[in-house]
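dumping the sequnces here before i forget
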Amino acid sequence: SRAYLVCPMNTSPYVDPNKPSQEIWEEFSMSFTPAVREVVEFAKKIPGFRDLSEHDQVSLLKAGTFEVLMVRFASLFNMAEQTVTFLSGKQYSLGTLRSLGAGELLNSMCEFSEKLAALRLNQDEMSLFTAVVLVSADHSGIQNLNSVEALQDKLIWALRNLVMQNHGDESATTFTKLLLKLPELRSLNNMHSEELLSFKVHP
Amino acid sequence: YNDPASNLGLEDIIRKALMGNLEERPD
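..and the predicted 3d for all of it:
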């Protein structure tokens, strides 16, 4: 069993070694459930999302929740201070988290957060980008691909228009950089999934 | 296939949150 659960959606990376794994997992679940519910509430407000079949809504949310959370909580990773803030509000230094076993995933998340912040998106742009991220999540479980792709195209077009209005000479570069964030998020999602799979629960 | 989303109970949380909206709809 592992002694640490290094995820900022937890209250702390430290786990009581005397607690049964099931209890640790349930507490972790209680910690991140509100954030997942917020992602669902956000998804419901994306124009056109509720018109997709329930199966496809669930598929996109299952595939894209981590990616949306990564974007929404990017500011928890503070590169200037070299810290990560957990849900309890307590900050842990990157050095501490690395000593607890956090490796490539933490480094990649930090790099992603820093580059996203550098794009200086306003609130509307960030919201639209987050919608694009969700609808662009892995489509392998989707039944009605045409509907999802039509919604994806519509949202990407809207994001392009918004960025073109706001970023002057850097508009095209900013938009391209945003689109390149999608495969980066997919890669982070895959790394995160591997971490989850390696975390075994023994009831 | 071991699905991380199911491991976490993610699908259950997602379904409940989606269904919540249906319950709030007036008849």
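The radius of gyration of chain A is 18 Å.
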